[in-house]
Design goal:
With 247 residues, this protein is of the alpha/beta class. Helices cover 24% and strands 10% of the residues. The strands form 3 sheets. The protein has a 3-stranded parallel beta sheet with strand order 4-1-5, with helices on one face. Strands 2-3 form a two-stranded antiparallel sheet. Strands 6-7 form a two-stranded antiparallel sheet. Strand 2 and strand 3 form a beta hairpin. The longest helix has 20 residues. The radius of gyration is 18 Å and the shape is globular. The mean pLDDT is 89.
Length: 247
């Protein structure tokens, strides 16, 4: 998650609380480094992060609810770990609970919809298998149902144009060991699928090995932003959808 918005994981390979969580445990994790958010705001590009089951805007807690279900998990919210986001009240206002009806209303108008939207389902719908989704079968079904409801709401909206892309990507593969990619052996969470949805053409399968740095590189290139850290040498994903970045 950190890699997707900053181009590095800063040696963090655990699920510790953010140090900016007032009730954080010890040890905790924090990063003081530039992110995609700095880049977007420098170009006045609107953004937001939407997190299913987050209880309130800018929530800094580790999880919610506090019982064993813990549907919202801070470890899936990379923004909260960066000092220049978590300590900035204005930026915290961009981190909101995910609500499909609210998102649909926002996407009605391309003029007002955020240009970059990061969505994290809760730990049932992201197929981690929490609470009522404790088995692999239930977790898979929950994730499928979430996408079946959410994807059409996004891609059929007025804000999803010929220049839009929806990236659906998993964070790790529990059955893939610590397989890496792209010249970084041993740094990774196994091999995971990624699906890119656009309004262009027929299905295409990418042949170039890519990783989360590739996703960041693609987003940065698409918005005309400089690449951060490991994204600088990453292979972007443009081969899987025809996009004229010169438009």
């Amino acid at each position: 998650y950190l890699s997707m918005i900053s181009g590095d994981y800063f040696g963090i390979q655990d699920d510790n609380d953010s140090c900016f969580n007032p009730g954080h445990g010890n040890p905790c994790d924090s990063v003081d480094a530039p992110t995609l958010i700095d880049q977007l705001e420098s170009k006045h590009i609107s953004w937001e992060g939407l997190f299913e089951s987050m209880p309130s805007v800018g929530y800094l807690g580790a999880s919610y609810p506090s019982d064993a279900n813990r549907l919202y998990a801070q470890k899936h919210n990379p923004f909260i770990y960066f000092k220049n986001i978590a300590t900035n009240s204005s930026r915290l206002m961009h981190l909101k609970p995910f609500n499909l009806n609210t998102l649909q209303s926002e996407l009605v108008s391309p003029a007002s919809a955020s240009k970059f939207i990061f969505i994290a389902p809760n730990q049932c719908n992201d197929q981690h298998g929490t609470g009522s989704c404790a088995t692999d079968e239930l977790a898979q079904a929950a994730g499928d149902a979430f996408l079946l409801q959410t994807m059409p709401a996004i891609i059929n909206s007025r804000s999803f144009t010929e220049r839009s892309a929806l990236f659906i990507v998993w964070d790790e593969n529990d059955f893939g060991g610590n397989l890496g990619c792209c010249g970084r052996p041993g740094v990774g969470g196994g091999h995971v699928p990624m699906i890119v949805v656009t309004k262009h053409g027929k299905p295409i399968t990418g042949a170039t090995p890519t990783d989360h740095y590739s996703l960041l590189a693609t987003i940065e290139d698409g918005f005309g932003l400089p690449r951060l850290v490991n994204a600088k040498k990453a292979a972007p994903l443009f081969e899987v959808f025809p996009v004229d970045r010169g438009e």
